[in-house]
Amino acid sequence: MIAEKVFAEGVAKDIRNYLPPEYENAEFQVVQKNKNNGVQLIGVQVNLPGKDLSPIIYVEQFFDEIRQGEPVEQVMNRFARCIEQSSRAPFMNSDIDLMNYDSLKEHLAIKIVNTKANQKMLQEMPHENIEDLSAICYVNFPVDSREGKATMQVRNEHLNIWNIDEKELFQQARVNKQLVNIEHVTAKMDVEELKTMIEEHVAYTNSEIGKKILEHFTDYLPKFKKIIPADYEKMMTTILQLEEQGMSSEQAKIEAFYMIKEGR
Length: 264
Prior knowledge:
Blueprint lengths: L1 H13 L12 E8 L5 E8 L8 E3 L1 H8 L4 H16 L13 H4 L3 E7 L4 H4 L4 E4 L2 E9 L8 E4 L2 H7 L3 H10 L4 E5 L3 H18 L2 H8 L1 H4 L4 E5 H15 L4 H13 L3
Antiparallel strand pairs: 1-2, 2-3, 4-6, 5-6, 6-7, 8-9
């Protein structure tokens, strides 16, 4: 524990050198927290002038990486990336704490990525392999902003911060079906887009499974599902209704945003 605290003090002293200019006046302080399970964790708290949120990045995993021979430069860069992700939280719902799993677990969701094209990224993320694809988790933050939605991909270091394992992460993400609406792929445009996506996947990966699906596309089509974020579907439906009432596309988008925001 003493060695870990010394490491944290070194991080607090030097981490500014790995962060962008907006962190020039930030304060980095070593803190020790007692978690609900009785475990004591040492972290670095980041205090940015003018920001209400002061995220804490726990150092245990990063300290272990140093002991296992990871280059200091790489470890410090990963630590800095965690700070940057956490510091974006003021744009999100203030009830969500990136360091507190219980406050964000209901916002976990799953998306599918191409395994071959994302090999390097997947080394740093909890994931499940599905044939030649991989499932990863992300946090889908509710944002009270016209800038759009905010998401954060879940990385290995987050599991350590939240004190959970990969199995628990994916179990929770699968429970959160209220975040999305699931439909069959029936619209002509959606069917064409799906087929194009599979064709591109086959062209890139030479996937035998993809080839088989294309050969028997009509038979496989009912097995596909269209997953739409609930908020997105609500927004698109509202925009369409407003356009039918005579609004321009731009006016409809603006009005739809405020209608959903205000619960009208």
